[in-house]
Amino acid sequence: MSAEQLLGAVSDEDIVIVADLEAGVGTLSRLAESSVDVTLVVVEPMPRSIDVGQRAAAVADDQAQGRLIVVGNKVADAGDRARLLDAFPGREVVIVPDDAQVGAADRSGSSPVDVAPDAPAVRAIETIVDLVLDGGRRG
Question: What is the pLDDT of residues 30-61, one digit of tens each?
Fold first, then answer.
């Protein structure tokens, strides 16, 4: 089932759907206007990723796809952080640091939340969860 079909098949009452869409803007551009409450645009601090993220943010805006949150993923240092903030001025940006504890958990087949609940990346992801759950109420 495509993202468009899934979102079209459910009522919008008290349902939370988290969908990891393909990279790029294709699926996002095919969604019906205003079909989601929150759009997360996940970008890494690399030029190609930032470019795609900027295009996705523009499509989300054009399609009125709810509150837009940019997630800067695998941010290694202040330069990466600045690059992302500069690329998305005026946007809500959550930084998820590059975190060795996440990689270690992944290699062991465990969830970082279970293995390292206080890791910086896990705390950042918890912030994203709070923002997403609040997003439908802000509309």
Answer: 666 666 778 889 999 999 999 999 998 998 88
| Rounded Cα gap, residues 6 and 104, in angstroms | 34
pTM of the entire predicted model: 0.81
Dihedral angle sign, alpha carbons of residues 12, 27, 34, 67:
positive
User: Which residues form the domain of 128?
Assistant: 3-138
What is the tally of structural domains in the chain? 1
How would you classify the pairing of strands 38-43 and 92-97? unpaired
Question: CATH number, domain at 66?
Answer: 3.40.50.300
